[in-house]
Design goal:
Elements (H helix, E strand, L loop, with lengths): L12 H10 L2 H12 L2 E3 L8 E3 L2 H10 L4 E2 L6 H6 L8 H15 L1 H19 L8 E2 H18 L4 H18 L16 H20 L7 H7 L4 H32 L1 H15 L6 H4 L3 H13 L5 E6 L3 E3 L2 E3 L4 E5 H5 L39 H18 E5 L5 E4 L3 E4 L3 E6 L2
Parallel strand pairs: 2-8
Antiparallel strand pairs: 1-2, 3-5, 4-12, 5-8, 6-7, 9-12, 10-11
Helix pairs in contact: 1-2, 6-7, 6-16, 7-11, 8-9, 9-11, 11-14, 11-16, 12-14
Bound molecules: protoporphyrin IX containing FE.
Length: 428
Amino acid sequence: MSRIPLPTASTSRNALKALLKRKTVLAALEVFHAELGDVFQIPLPGFNPIMLAGSEANRFVLVEQRDTLRWRLEQDPIVRLLRHGVLVEDGDSHDNLRRQMNPALHRTKLQDYVRHMCDCTNFVLAQWDSSSPLNISLEIRRMALLVLTKTLFGVDFEPEMNRLWQPILRTLRYISPGLWVIWPNIPRPGYQKAFRQLDEYFHRLIAYRRANSTGREDLLSLLIASGMSDDLIRDQLLTMIIAGHDTSTALLSWTLYLLSRHLDIQVEAQAEVDRVLGSNPPHYSSLSELHYLDQIINETLRLYPPIHAGLRIAATDIEFGEYFIPKGTRVMYSIYLSHRDARYWPEPNVFRPERFASATRPPYVFLPFGGGPRNCIGMAFAQVEAKVVLARILQKFDLHFTGKPVRPYMGATLEPRPAVWLNIKERV
Ligand code: HEM
């Protein structure tokens, strides 16, 4: 087969202009995608990943080459942090962990979780004060932490919130893109204390549950019953708290931001929530009637996918069409670029939830939760959580934009920075 050289991104004037205007690397990637197509290489010293986007390329990464495009690279901060967490394992080890954890995140469990999701949301909402602007990103992070720990670990995190808040944020900073991408061995002091505090918390939690485990069916009890060591359980709990709360925080912060900027859509969403729920708390069965809320959540995930790309490493030489990808190359599938592609999404930068009213698009072009055998294990959980929290907020409050601008920031997730601030008004 003839091989053609990979298109390579260079600092084109257009990319630079987009970068400066929109102040995010994503804008430059959009220019490269438009100029070079669905496959291109980014020549960063020591990293130079191949970027893939679009239906065919995403399927190639997530399904066809699932075994050759692997996740784990020992030097990556996320691997150093999560050690043997399901997110960073490959092959049989990954599949075994996933099988053991699946029952705690299965749709049938979600029916029980809805009540906890609702209680945690109510707890935070009860403290909202409408007399001054509210840092919504912070409030949503509190909710997401309470929900995740209550449902999957079976604990009330509120007494730990203040003590572990900074360690959690620090840990997120540790795995966010930075200079380590180019210099993997660059010294990174200042994180050990945060890691120690989280480890102590998890080991205390595990020890307590081993001693008091009767009748529980949450993830923590499931892992203990499976015979895993404390260290391996710690890896899974840390994985879940990191992968499972920061993503939901980003999604819900963006959604509330967009609703505050599109009041007509907010009013229509409130009308649906009022019609389906009245003032009652959502139940699992009523959630499936909130169709417009589904569309709003999907459209937010399309525009601002909390995980904007997935990173892999080629375990052997591989070929994608006429392109050759040598062993050891880092390969990224871009969720963000696939979601902003005008071939699939007319006027891709416009927030238009109705586009999800009919599902006519090729596979693997809408993939906020990844795809294939290692798609997001928490997908159903996150979808239900987002709906419960949103429904509860829309039942109780009108949301108004404060004028404080935000931009997408590539941290551990694609989050609105510096933070979403909203004026809220209690609905009468
Ligand atoms: C809006 C919320 C969420 C989004 C957008 C999201 C997105 C994703 C994506 C794109 C992947 C695949 C990454 C890749 O291919 O490299 C993934 C994997 C994963 N997610 Fe999520 N996620 C969300 C919520 C959650 C929640 C709530 C949990 C836990 C309760 C969770 C746990 C995980 C885990 C453990 C994996 C690794 C799965 C595996 O490798 O088998 N996520 N997520």
